[in-house]
Amino acid sequence: MMDLQERYEAREAEKLYNIGFAGFKSEAVTILKGKKVTAGPLAGKSYAELHDVVDAVTPALSRHGLGASWKITKDEKEWLEVTCTLKHIGGHSESVSMGGPPDVGGAKNAIQARASTVSYLQRYTLKAITGLSETGDDNDGNSHALDEHLADWLATVEACVDMAQLKHTRKDGGASFTKRKDVPGYAKFA
Fold first, then answer.
1. Which residues pair with 70 in a beta bridge?
2. Spatial CA neighbour of 91 closest among 169, 170, 16
3. Residues 6+ apart with CB under 8 A from 72
4. How far apart (Å, rounded) are the C-alpha atoms in residues 66 and 119?
5. Does this model's pTM top 0.90?
6. pLDDT tens for the chain, residues 1 to 190
């Protein structure tokens, strides 16, 4: 009897979550790209920093009984994983995880490299769990979406710490560009 009650409560909590999430999505939250890249191959491009994403989504999430939080779910020398959980006050939650190597690009020390990766993963998992993208992102295959895709892969390349990671990234990136039929993007990536 107790098991039946628990399953009923879980279904009701999921229904409340779905209602809250639908309300959140109806607000058409806009994430603005507040940071401009000043150097490197992406100079002149803009992106949203973590605080831009958090500031954009938090009020709307809260109005619908939702809240987001992160945990570092894998903390190894060469790999970090962050899990973003979206919880509803009714008790149901959903999670998404993403991982990557420490971002050793630029003049970062070891702690800064790890913090940079964690921040990056927090930003992308929050966007993924809420189903949002930054203004200017384009999902129909035009150049904005392609530029974002290239930027993500170039950041992954910069984060590689050895040849094994670089070879693995080249293989995965090549497959990703091939799948998108993005020959110019692959040429820049390669």
1. 84
2. 16
3. 80, 81, 82, 118
4. 21
5. no
6. 889 999 999 999 999 999 999 999 998 898 888 888 887 777 788 888 999 999 999 999 999 999 999 999 999 999 999 999 999 999 999 999 999 999 988 888 999 999 999 999 999 999 999 999 887 644 444 455 556 777 777 777 777 777 888 787 888 877 877 777 776 676 677 7
